[in-house]
């Protein structure tokens, strides 16, 4: 049913909690797991982002940690890193890898000052080429 599962990861608590759900789904359906981290470049006119997730080293470490977490459960995971707007990159990668499911935490690091209707999760739900499972 779910041949390929895309799991966008960041350093949020919600992403860590969603990992358990991802583990269950991938094991149940013998799915291919793809871990994705998206680095958003600063907008024009803004100074460089000082967020730790903006550094390639921090992203590589996050992906390696997530890959190890799944490997401990007997799951081999592919990793991908992209740069751009998170919601658009998540949907583009889902389309590129022909994902059958995207699993995300309900609130990650992409919640904006404008609120939930401008969050990464909300945008992915509305733009995704496949079903999206949101883990509270």
From TrEMBL:
Name by which UniProt lists this protein: Universal stress protein
CDD domains, alphabetized: USP-like
InterPro entries xref list: Rossmann-like_a/b/a_fold, Universal_stress_UspA, UspA
Pfam families: Usp
Gene3D superfamilies: HUPs
UspA domain ranges (all copies): 1-136
Family per similarity comment: Belongs to the universal stress protein A family.
